[in-house]
What does this fold into?
Amino acid sequence: MAATRASKGASPTSAVADVEASAREFVQHEARLLDDRRFDEWEALWAPDGTYWIPGERDDLEAFALVQDNRNRITTRIRQMLDADRHSQRPPSRTARTVGGSQATVEDDEVLVRSSFVLLESRLDKLTQWGGVYEHRLRVLEGGALLMRLKKVLLVNRDQALSTMAFLL
Amino acid sequence: MIDYAALVQTDRVNSRLYTDPTIFDEEMQRIWRQGWVFVAHESELPEPGDYVTRTVGVDPVIVSRGRDGEVRVLMNRCTHRANLLCEMPSGNALYMRCPYHGWTFKNDGALIGCPFPGGYGADFVKEELSLVQATADTYQGFVFARLAGDGPTLRAWLGRAATDIFDRLVLSSPEGAVELNGGWIHHRVAANWKVVMENETDGYHPKFVHASVFAVAKSNLQEIYDERSGSRVRDLGGGHTELDHAPHYRATGKRLDWLGDSPSLAPYIEAMVAAHGEEQATQILIDGPPHALIFPNLFISEGFLLFIEPVGVEQTVQHSTPIYFKGADSLNHRIRIKMQGSIGPAGMLLADDTEMYNRNQVGLRAHQPEWLTLRRGLGRETVEADGVRNSNITDETSQRGMWAQYLEMMTANGSNPSL
It folds into this structure.
């Protein structure tokens, strides 16, 4: 195993392949943390300049979004979600998401991963399905660790009337 | 026949008003078709041919700007066999062709022609088959429509809300105008439309419904919506009501407290001073834009607006968008950032309001008690010189004002709702 890694490291092409593979793995791990409600660990995945973005009708950074949180607001959102008076999360949503078809592309010191997702949300007497495209822009740190600089959630039905989504997509 | 006067009383309303499908149908006719209803803003239709499709009550309509520059509201229904004519949310078209049999209309509603006209006899008069046009008018760029019947002019319908809400709103723009071009988000509610309407100027709930925001972030809402706040609830008449925060802000004397002042807003303040002069600009910046419900469907809330679409007796949609003030880019940027944190399906505020609406509708299924109590503040309202009712910010003066208008519309013209 160690020998394989060493020989891969020798070739730039396989180094890129390694980063791409770990980026795809990162995306699976990130989904799992949310479904398992391990929010401290999830928050630790973020870069200090991270943005959590769910576009509305228009897929445009300057247009009015469903969510467009900077790093501070991500913390606020998590804390509010866990507050006893966040009524729309009492009881909390139970979620299970399937993330597939991930394609990773290395761009300078970042890697972009595009995936499809289907998410089931159960809350009170309602089962709601959500789905669309995840775009993860991950910063590659010295030593290969990854941090989320952007998580963009492009819902297929972003132009429709949506149910409340007070959980994290 | 439903006895509305028995269901709507000064200090209480009956549960049935929120749950009875017959009442919902009668409301569509008497309030949503025969009253003035907000449909769009002129800034959404800057060019001839621009259109948006909307729903007024349950009626689909097209709001379009003609070649002549006039904004019209047309029923979105082909006069041939009732096919929905225009299916896109917005676009530009000077002509509309029905996809079913190819009947073609100008965007002022006139029927231009239909394929194989020889199949129709000599008594086929194109002019009789124009799209049905609603009465439309605008105030400060806000487009309203009345789908059926006669009644007051828009200006008379708005009454005190024209000056106190719309004129006050545009003052916060250095150019005296607002624009709705930030994009819309749409949020589903499993509750009757009146549950949503009543909450828009309810100054009693924020301390409780939004307690989780106060727990995690700095917010002035907690002081504003305290019983000791200087803010006031006002019933402007005609069902139009507001939560007037200007008295509270004047007491603090802080500029832009409604949004939170920031060094990034310096260009905006400068433009306001240039437009209004130092003294008036300072006053406008302290007072902030209004927070009001224009009966029955338009909620103007300082930096955003929301309009209510009733879908069914227990189904409603909230459509929201930021309010951008013309000539105020730095302000608008900050409005977008703040408002997209607060409103919509994931909003730190609106998600919890909507949760309350949904729970309200479930609570209404309990058959007792039969009544909802609306007596808060009845003993401490004051009446301004022109009849505007004014009370403590936490009082139910606003809901009583909406219900008075509701009762008037539901009982106008006796028992015949088609008049």
Notes: The first helix of chain B runs from residue 4 to 7. Chain B touches chain A through 35 residues (CB under 8 Å). The first strand of chain B starts at residue 8 and ends at 9.
